[in-house]
Amino acid sequence: MISREIRLRRYPSGRAGADDFVTVERAVRPPAQGEVRVRNLVLSLDPYMRDRMDPMTRYVEPFRLDEPMTGRVIGEVVISRSPGLPVGARVVHQLGWREVAQGPSSLFERLPEDGLPLEAHLSLLGMTGLTAWVGLTQVARMAPGSNVLVSAAAGAVGSTVGLLARRYGAGRVIGSAGGPAKRRLLLDRLGFDEAIDYRAAPIREQLRRIAADGVDVYFDNVGGDHLEAAIDVMRDHGVVVVCGAISGYDAETRPPGPDNLEQIMDKALRLEGFRVSEYVGMMPALAAELAPDIAAGRIESLTTVYEGLDNAVTAFLDLMSGRTTGKTLVRLGP
To answer: What is the pLDDT of residue 272?
Structure first.
C-alpha cells in the first residue's frame, strides 16, 4: 500500500513557507502482530507546531527533518492484528500529517462511541478544550464575576476560553483579535461582551479604554504587546495565564520583554505558565462536563476545515498568518 505524508524539509527562518515542507509517498508494510493500520480522517493543526519547527525549542521536542510531522489525528482502523482495536474502531493518535498510520496498538487510543462529531474530539473534547479548561479552572482558578481578557480570541483556544468563561459566570469577557471581521465574530457569534481589533490601533491604548474597570484574569495566547497591555489593566491580585506567545513564533530575534513588569509586584499579580501535556489525566473530567451539552447542541466549537492532505500546508500557513478562525482542521477522508 502507498501512503502520502508531509515532512519538514528544513527548519524555517522567520515565517514558515510552503518550500519548508515536502510531500512524500512511501510503501506501508503489512502490519505485524500487535499492530493496527489506521486510515486517517481528521488532522488537527495548532500554533505550537511552529515552535516545533525550531531545533532549539525547549517546550516540546522539535520536528525531525525528513520524517513525517506528528500531531493529533483521528482515524479508523482498517486492518487489525490487535484484539483490543477491531476493524472499524475510531481512534486518536499523534502520528500526524499522513494518510495512513500504522504501528503498535499502544500508540492509538480508542474513541468512545458517543455519536459526537469527530471534530469535537479534536476541539472541545481534545487538547484545545483541555487547554482552555485547565487554564481557567486549574491555573487561574477563575471565580464567578471575574473580568476575563483573552488574546487570539478568534482562535481555537481563545474562542473556547471565551465560551468557558461565560459558562463559569464571568462578569465581562473581553477578546482581542485581528481585523474588523474577527471583531464582529467575537461580538455577534461568540458572545464576547467587548472585542478589540488590535490592528485598528495600538492594543495598549484600546485596552486602557475598554477595560478601564480592570481585568481579573488574562489568558495570554500572544505575548508581546498584548501581555504588556494586559499588565497595565490587571486588578490587584489578578492572574495572567501564560498559554502561548504566537507573536514571537516567527521572530528571528528574541523580542524584548514587557516594559511594565514592576506592576507584577505593585499589584501582587500572579503570572503562571503551564504545559497541558501534564493534565491529560483530566480528560475524562472535561468530557463528563462538556459532552452532554455538545450532544444536546447547547455548545459547539468554531472550526475552519480544509479538505485533503494536499491542503494541509496551506491550512497551517493560513493558521499562522491569522486567516483562520476557531479550530483549524484538515479532513483527510470521509
So the answer is: 97
